[in-house]
Amino acid sequence: MSENTFGHPLSGLGWNPRVETAFDAAARHSTHVLLPARVTEARRGAVGVRLPQHETASLAPAVRKAAETDPATAPTSGDWVAVRRSGDTWLVEAVLERSGTLVRQGVAKDSHDQVLAANIDAVLICEAADQGPNVGRLERFLSLAWTSGATPIVAITKAELAGERLPEVVELVESVTTGADVHTVSAHTGLGLEELAARLRPGATWVLLGTSGAGKSSLLNALAGKTVMETGAIREDRRGRHTTTHRQLIPMPGGALFLDIPGVRRIDVPGDESGVDRTFADINALAEQCRFRDCAHGDEPGCAVNAAVDEGELDTRRLERWYKLRREAEWNRSRGDARLRAERRKEWKKNDRHGREAARRKRGY
C-alpha cells in the first residue's frame, strides 16, 4: 500500500487497510482513473458521496445493470465505492467489497434482500422506555444485528419518561439481550450518555436502528453535543413522529460515524439463522443439554429446554418466539434459494438461445 492509511484524506470517514486493498484491486482492473469515495446517502438512481468533499454521483451502466438484477448490490449508505469523472458528472464505477452489512430480508415476491447499511462496526438498537418495551421486536432487531457481523448494543431511550417502571423495563430488556450490552440513557437529562459516548471510537461506523419515535435523533444530537438530526414533535400519545426519510452518514465529534436510517416498520429476519441463534443463545445452550441430538423439544424424554420451562427458568413466550423466528428464517432461506434457482434457469435458457442463434448464423441461415 503506497499511502499511509492514517494520513489518507478519507481517514476521518473510516478509511482502513481493508478498504484500501479493495480499492487498489478495483483500480488495477479499470481502464479509467478511479478515486475512492464513501456513500453518505442513497438516492433514486444516484448517491451522495464524500471525496472528501460532498458530491453527487450517478451509477455507471455496469453498476446500474447489476442493481436492476439484484437490488442488494446497489450502493447504499456506508458503502465504499470507486468513482470516476465523466464530463461534468461523477460515476460510481464499482461498489467495493462490504464488511458488516445490515440486511433486511426482502418482502416482495422476488425475495431480494434490502441492504440497510454497509461497512458497519456496531448497531445501536434504540428501544423507548415509555413504549413497552416490545421484546419481540427487540429480538428481531438483535437477530438482524448479529447476522450483520457488527456488534449490537441496546439503548433504552427516554428513560426519564418511564418513571417508576424504569427498573422493570431494564430488567425485561436485559432478559432478552443475551450477549449484547444494555445502556439506559436519556437525551433530556443526560443519564448514561457519558458511558455510551465512551464506546464511540474514532473511525468506527455505527448504525442507529429502531422504530419511529424511539428517540434515535434526540439521542444522536445529545451524543454529538449539537443538533445533527431533526427531531419530530411529540404526539399526544407521547410517541415521536417519523423524521428520517432517507439514509445518511453523520460524523461525530470524537471521530466515530453514525448511519441514521429511516425508522423500520417491518423486520423479516434473514434466511441466515446465525443471528437468531445468537439472539437466543440461552435456548441454544439448553438445547445442547438435551438427551437426544435431534430433540424437537416436544414430548422427548430428557429435554433440557422443556425442563427449564417447567422449572420457571425459561419463559414460555420467549421459547415460542424462538420457534417462530427459526421457522421464519428457514422459510426466507428457502425463498432465496428458489429465487436463485429461477435466476439460474433464466440465465441457462438465455445462453442456450444465444448458442442456437450463433449456430444458425454460422450455418448461414
TrEMBL record:
Domain EngC GTPase positions: 118-265
Binding positions for GTP per the UniProt entry: 210-218
InterPro entries xref list: G_CP_dom, P-loop_NTPase, Ribosome_biogen_GTPase_RsgA, RsgA_GTPase_dom
UniProt keyword RNA-binding, yes or no: yes
Residue ranges the record marks as coiled coil: none
Bias kind Basic and acidic residues: ranges: 342-358
PROSITE patterns xrefs: ENGC_GTPASE, G_CP
Cofactor note as given: Binds 1 zinc ion per subunit.
Listed Pfam families: RsgA_GTPase
Chain spans, region Disordered: 342-365
Enzyme Commission designation: 3.6.1.-
Domain (CP-type G) ranges: 109-267
Cellular localization per UniProt: Cytoplasm
UniProt KW Nucleotide-binding keyword: yes
Keywords assigned: Cytoplasm, GTP-binding, Hydrolase, Metal-binding, Nucleotide-binding, Ribosome biogenesis, RNA-binding, rRNA-binding, Zinc
Annotated SUPFAM superfamilies: P-loop containing nucleoside triphosphate hydrolases (SSF52540)
Superkingdom of the organism of origin: Bacteria
Family the UniProt entry places it in: Belongs to the TRAFAC class YlqF/YawG GTPase family. RsgA subfamily.
PANTHER family tied to this protein: SMALL RIBOSOMAL SUBUNIT BIOGENESIS GTPASE RSGA (PTHR32120:SF10)
Primary role: One of several proteins that assist in the late maturation steps of the functional core of the 30S ribosomal subunit. Helps release RbfA from mature subunits. May play a role in the assembly of ribosomal proteins into the subunit. Circularly permuted GTPase that catalyzes slow GTP hydrolysis, GTPase activity is stimulated by the 30S ribosomal subunit.
Binding partners and assembly: Monomer. Associates with 30S ribosomal subunit, binds 16S rRNA.
Name used for this protein in its record: Small ribosomal subunit biogenesis GTPase RsgA
